[in-house]
Amino acid sequence: MSSVLIFDSEYPVSRAAISLIFSHFTPPTVRTLVKPNLLGGFECDRHVTTHPSLIQALVEYLEQAGIPLTVGDNPAGKKNLMERAKRAGIYQASKGYFEDISDGTKVTTRSNYFSELVVSRKVMESPYIVNVPKFKTHMQTIITGAVKNMFGILPGEEKSMVHCAARSLDQFSRALVDVYAIRPPHLNVMDAIMVMEGNGPSSGTPRHLGKILASDNGVELDAVMAYMMGLDPHEVPMLEYAHRQGLGAIDIDEIDIIGDIKKIPHFRVPSRTLVTVITPVSSRYYDFMAVKPTLNRNKCTRCYECVEKCPVSALQRNHYPRLNREKCVSCFCCVEICENQAMEVPSRARDLFNRLLKM
């Protein structure tokens, strides 16, 4: 039976914390892939990516146990992967085990949105996977945790096809679960020491919680995270769909929870209404309903990462990045990957003003 472990912890994460996790869950005895949340080259004190000390503690535990291991992720785009991993501190924390895992292999899938996907070969060939997500909100899917972190099993550009095929909140949520189901991780260790509320996954507000969560079921772990955020897991489309697919329980009373579970007071999450506006349910009304990202030129360094990583080529190089609203599918990848927070999500009123200004 699956369970979710919750316990107190702080940075730097200690070896004792990792030992506690493996006293509850069977430790690996075979080659292991440690898959962090490496959204981009965000410094660790911004708490966007998995904290390096958690990765290092896992690496040292596996190293001492004599387990062959790899640390790797597939953030959007392959360019400057090592540099971004170094800026996030994950490369150094990996102690020489960090690898580029973007080499892919085609995998047949069961999904309404794609029949096959290119998945990281290293992911498919690793006998044991430790998924190491962050406890965060997400503007497009409300939450991002264990399930969403496994979107990184797809090499960068492969994610573009998923974004184009599944544009609404419900569609993209189901697509993420379909990806997760390809290779569910054996263990999920969630960094919840510093969490993110508000407009995550990169532009939200860090908040201290002082916890680590772990589970051998990523769906149940995410359900616990959602509950702690003050959400009803059944109101999160990604979790409801995963539950219907038989991937895990999402009723808190049906999950074996070890430790103290409490709702976080006044935790700010993107409302489902806001998310639905950002990723509208009907493509027929897409151009009328959808909010599109805007550029804050005062923050923009003109690195053009947003242009290179846009899944649908809706951004073009100009004196500054320029958005083609007709091409934009409001996936907000540009907002997620901008390390300077120059790409922003406007309010509905501001977005309408921006449209009228350009008419």
What labels describe this entry?
19% strand, 359 residues, two-stranded antiparallel ribbon, 2 domains, Rossmann fold, Alpha-Beta Plaits, alpha/beta, 9-stranded mixed sheet
Mind explaining what this structure looks like?
This protein is an alpha/beta fold. The chain folds into two domains: about 5-260, 3-Layer(aba) Sandwich (Rossmann fold); about 290-359, 2-Layer Sandwich (Alpha-Beta Plaits), CATH 3.30.70. It contains 15 helices and 15 strands. The chain has helices at about 15-25, 50-65, 80-85, 90-95, 120-125, 145-150, 160-165, 170-180, 220-230, 235-245, 270-280, 285-290, 305-310, 335, 350-359; strands spanning about 5-10, 30-35, 70, 105-110, 115-120, 130, 135-140, 140-145, 185-195, 205-215, 255-260, 295, 315, 320-325, 345. The strands form four sheets. Strands 1, 2, 3, 6, 7, 8, 9, 10 and 11 form a nine-stranded mixed sheet that branches. Helix 2 (about 50-65) links the parallel strand 2 and strand 3 (about 70). Helix 1 (about 15-25) packs across helix 2 and helix 8 packs across helix 10 (about 235-245). The chain is globular and about 55 Å long. The N and C termini lie far apart (about 60 Å). Mean pLDDT is about 90; it is low at about 280-290.
